[in-house]
Design a protein that fits this description.
By secondary structure, the chain is of the alpha/beta class. The chain has two domains: about 170 residues, Rossmann fold, CATH 3.40.50.450; about 140 residues, Rossmann fold (3-Layer(aba) Sandwich), CATH 3.40.50. The strands form two sheets. The protein has a seven-stranded mixed beta sheet, sandwiched between helices. Strands 7-8-6-9 form a four-stranded parallel beta sheet, sandwiched between helices. A hairpin with a 2-residue loop joins strand 10 and strand 11. Helix 8 crosses helix 9. Bound molecules: 6-O-phosphono-beta-D-fructofuranose (F6P). 6-O-phosphono-beta-D-fructofuranose binds next to loops.
């Protein structure tokens, strides 16, 4: 009887997940495996919710945004009896290996299931935040950030017509990669990332100079930026202990501060989940399919407890626990690079 691989996608979805599923399922066929999808991330494994993953299901999904396996932020280690249910469902569905696609949270669960319960798991890195350690890039980041660059340039057009300063808030959680790339690529005047304490006075002085020269100003702010009025200890958290950043209103707060300090009319926009949708870019499609194929290869070799990572131009296996230990955040070198363009 053919062996079976279970696949799941957890955490915030992003463009590139469907190509990754396609890569894993089509390569698994080469190795003589069948595939079954667990729906809605770890919730599907806890509740035994599955869907078939045949050739017909995946052959034409490289261009589709989202994930055909659906997603959730369920953490089985935070729910009574849920880990036992995961183990029972792996048995009930005769799963020989599990491929978990996700970011730090989803892969953190995979790491624990492997270390504490010997579940034969391989991880596939995904996140639009690009904050996963041990891999140079994750799919989702390229598409999501290109969408933010497009939004920033649109804001600049309208800002210029009205001689305003425009503030765009982007996602990225506690890492500033999305904000930094968006800001540099869209020629923004100021970028706020969570890694750096904001200097409101310096920013406003700079915006006044830039606005006087160009007749417009553009600020890109990460949703995780720490503005003076925010109190991190009071913010609501999800099952993984992450702050829910959606209600902070970074852009609005910042726009008020800027208008007050510069006397220049300022408007705010938040791109939010628009960033997470859409057809994956060429880069994200190719990276998704490459890591998907590599994950199925690791399963065939029986090399479990690993994540497939992009290192330079190569896809290589790295221990899951190395990838999920610490977040990859923006370094001083990258901040210095961004500062070159802040004139
Ligand atoms: O981790 C991806 C991400 O898009 C973050 O940038 C953002 O903070 C979060 O997910 C939003 O999560 P949700 O879709 O649960 O609101």
């Amino acid at each position: 009887m053919a062996k079976t691989i279970g696949l799941l996608t957890g955490g915030g979805d992003c463009p590139g997940l469907n190509p990754a599923i396609r890569g894993a399922v089509m390569r698994a066929m080469d190795h003589g495996y069948m595939c079954v999808g667990f729906l809605e991330g770890w919730r599907g494994l806890v509740e035994g919710k599955t869907r078939p993953l045949s050739l017909q299901d995946v052959e034409d999904i490289a261009k589709q945004g989202g994930t055909i396996l659906k997603s959730s932020r369920t953490n089985p280690f935070k729910r009574e009896g849920a880990v036992e249910k995961c183990l029972a469902n792996l048995k009930a569905h005769k799963i020989d290996a599990l491929i978990a696609m996700g970011g730090e949270d989803t892969l953190g669960v995979a790491t624990k299931l492997h270390a504490e319960h010997k579940v034969p798991v391989v991880g596939v890195p995904k996140t639009m935040d690009n904050d996963l350690s041990s891999t140079d890039f994750t799919f989702g980041f390229d598409t999501a950030t290109a969408t933010a660059v497009d939004a920033a340039e649109r804001l600049k057009d309208t800002g210029k017509s009205h001689s305003r300063i425009m503030v765009l808030e982007v996602m990225g959680r506690h890492a500033g990669w999305v904000a930094l790339y968006t800001g540099v690529a869209s020629a923004a005047d100021w970028i706020l990332v969570p890694e750096e304490k904001p200097n409101i006075e310096k920013m406003c002085a700079h915006l006044k100079v830039a606005h006087a020269r160009k007749g417009v100003g553009l600020v890109i702010a990460s949703e995780g930026a720490e503005l003076p009025s925010f109190d991190a200890s009071k913010e609501a958290k999800d099952e993984f202990g992450h702050m829910l950043l959606k209600d902070r209103g970074v852009a609005e707060e910042l726009a008020k501060l800027i208008e007050k300090n510069t006397g220049i009319e300022t408007r705010a926009a938040t791109i939010g989940h628009i960033q997470r949708g859409g057809s994956p870019s060429l880069f994200d499609r190719m990276l998704g399919m490459r890591v998907g194929v590599a994950a199925a290869d690791l399963v065939a070799k029986g090399d479990f407890g690993k994540m497939v990572a992009l290192k330079g131009t190569q896809i290589v296996p790295v221990p899951l626990k190395e990838a999920t230990g610490t977040l990859k955040i923006v370094t001083k070198e990258w901040l210095d690079f961004a500062n070159v363009f802040s004139k």
